[in-house]
Amino acid sequence: MLKSKLRQKILKIREKTNKKNKQIDFTQIIKILKKEKITKKVVGGYYPVNFEIDDLEILKKFEKNKFNISLPVIKKNFQMEFCKWSFSYPLKINKYGIPEPKKKNIVYPDILLIPLVAFDKNLNRLGYGGGYYDRLIAKFSKKKKIIKIGLAFSVQRITKVPTNVYDQKLDYIVTNKYIMK
Q1: Would the pTM of this model clear 0.85, i.e. be above it?
Q2: Dist CA 30 CA 172 (whole Å)
Q3: Average pLDDT of the chain?
Q4: CA distances from 17 to 11, 97, 139, 152 (A)
């Protein structure tokens, strides 16, 4: 199945699921960080749109526990960067209708919480098709070790995500029902 058709199908399923399922528990993320021996680092989250898993409560708990949090800012040429953010900082709406930090204090997260459309047992991720996260992960991985955690509903799992040479695998996928590594 073509990526675009697959995206459409899974996005409809995700919308229905989001309306009736609980979100991800913060303790699931903490289990991963303990396993990876991560403490007091920079967390890159996202502002949820299109019925994505809502990571805002997770980010609030990270901030409360003295982690630095950040959100992506979309740039030209399918690039993005992460900027330090706090729930007390203002946001602006970008050209895709997604809130992003007004301040441009660029950071390089140690932990990335990544939205996805679909995933498979091999930790492959299907996104929206722009390649923003794939480019970002490739760039950040040259600078330092980052933990890449995809957030999804369990119903977003498919048999096989179609991939190409540019697609970046995740380290973990946390769903409303289980953790995959």
Answers
A1: yes
A2: 12
A3: 92
A4: 10, 22, 33, 10
Best CA proximity match to 43, nearest among 56, 53, 28? 56
Q: Which two tokens stand for residue 22?
A: 């609980």
Extract the runs of DSSP E, i.e. beta strands, from the chain.
42-44, 68-74, 80-85, 91-93, 99-101, 106-107, 111-115, 118-119, 125-126, 147-152, 172-175, 179-180
- Whole-angstrom CA distances from 51 to 13, 69, 121 are 10, 21, 22
Domains and CATH numbers, the chain: 3-180 (3.40.50.10420)
- Number of Cβ within 10 Å of residue 103's Cβ equals 14
**Smallest Cα–Cα separation from 77: which of 144, 136, 117?**
136
CB 155 within 8 A of CB 144: no
Contact 179, 151 (CB under 8 A): no
Contact 156, 14 (CB under 8 A): yes
Summarised one tens digit per residue, pLDDT across range 130-176 is 999 999 999 999 989 999 999 999 999 999 999 999 999 999 999 99
| Tens-place pLDDT, residues 88-113 | 999 999 999 999 999 889 999 999 99
Per-residue pLDDT at 6 exceeds 70: yes
